């Protein structure tokens, strides 16, 4: 970890899964429904892959996720899995399933009240990422919710670069739990805050972060 003195940022950019949202609390339901439907449609007839395999892939682009979760699957299975994933995630969110990490709302409100612009940059699908923000009543706190699904970016580096350009941001922090977040922040010249509380990735993924947090509310303590 790189220890440098932090300055007050103009904006803070957050990853969604594993940073704001406890994705596994939603995926436990979605995972079972998705593979049951794939088998029903004859697109994947083997046993349901362990959910740990799916959770370990969080933060990746969807196309890459399915290649790891069901490497013996067909392109048709991958395409249908994309459709079902979004459908079931939105249904379960609307039903009230899935939770945020502790202290997320109050910390975001404090940052917002201090005049810091808040954004989301996620490799997820557009309607899912915006759905989490909407159903958990935090959408109004963000100046922008960016997703790879909406902008069809090939990496989070490109997604964050677009966000910075669109909003004319010169100074920002990138907050996330995976190597893709660290890479996106460093490649765009941002201060990187690595989140250690999700447990999806390995410790090495956060190498290069300027600070590490074990609870979301620690973030506000870094502000001058």
UniProtKB/TrEMBL annotation:
GO terms for molecular function: phosphoglycolate phosphatase activity. One of its GO terms (biological process) is DNA repair. The lineage of its organism: Bacteria, Bacillati, Bacillota, Bacilli, Bacillales. This is HAD hydrolase-like protein. It holds the Pfam family HAD_2. SUPFAM superfamilies: HAD-like. The keyword Cytoplasm does not apply. It comes from Paenibacillus roseus. InterPro entries: HAD-like_hydrolase_sf, HAD-like_sf, HAD_2, HAD_sf, PGP-like_dom2. GO terms for cellular component: cytosol. Keywords: Hydrolase.
